[in-house]
């Protein structure tokens, strides 16, 4: 994604793959925060500068390891900027726009691969926890209790929307107009973010 | 499942697989309603009586083709029997009980396989439309407008719960007590079944 934008895709494809492979293992095993570009470069037997040259930042390298259909740091601030009111609808609308658009094919590939490959599961989890949740909670965080639990509930509904609408293609959800889906699922996401947490879920 | 219960699993494993294979293609291509045991037996080159002997009814044969983790016709009536009040919580509670229990492993296998195999996607869709939705709507149907759309919304949240809690294991949702999850997701499912459909989604 970032590579296409900046025109940096050039370079030896073997070297690129070596770096990606080293990065996948480093992120999956050590976690995104603790893995370093230096270690990844060492494992791939290249200079750290080359990793930066090919992929930009460590953030962008994580996106490249899973071929993420969108960059949460680009998409989320706009969604969250309007404040907590209506954020559920804006999030569902943006999610559908990505999946209905060219990013949808990459999202489907990612979801299909992730359920089958334990390494990729760990990477998607890192992506979700380090990038999506942290970015969103940084903006909304001060207003939310139980932030991480709320974030995983939102993720469960959005993952399920992807599965039902784009992978299993369950009708009539699969062919419904985007705004019809936003009208039904937007309030769910809004509720997960803002409804008081019932006493049974207080400690989660 | 039914076979384990009735002790009918015996018989030539090749013949069983031949029948399952023929059934998978028949259900996927013609749909559950239109496929017949007679056609399936013919394609598998066996006597129709043998299909009944191995698998029981056509319903049970469909469950066997996908190794379904539960039989909706056994589970759903109990959930729906209490009427529409609280049906969302009962459904989420039963869903978690299946996935937290021994059925969870089979559910995970099914979900992992279904996202990768188009034939299995069609079977899961048939299973969902012919068995889950019809069984549920038969009980609740008269009280619901937009039944099929509501059913796919419920499916989207339950599929997503399975993905987030059992496949990707996103924390803290993955380790949350069942009742904490019921308290948060039960009202969503209840809302999908009973909230008025907004004007944007009226035609779906």
From TrEMBL, chains A, B:
GO molecular function term, any single one: DNA-binding transcription factor activity
One Pfam family, short name: TetR_N
Ranges of the DNA-binding region feature: 36-55
InterPro entries referenced in this protein's UniProt entry, alphabetically: Homeodomain-like_sf, HTH-type_TetR-like_transc_reg, HTH_TetR, Tet_transcr_reg_TetR-rel_C_sf, TetR_C_16
Listed SUPFAM superfamilies: Homeodomain-like, Tetracyclin repressor-like, C-terminal domain
Ranges for domain HTH tetR-type: 13-73
Keyword Cytoplasm: no
Keywords linked to the UniProt accession: DNA-binding
PANTHER family xref list: HTH-TYPE TRANSCRIPTIONAL REGULATOR RUTR (PTHR30055), TRANSCRIPTIONAL REGULATORY PROTEIN (PTHR30055:SF235)
The protein's name in its UniProt record: AcrR family transcriptional regulator
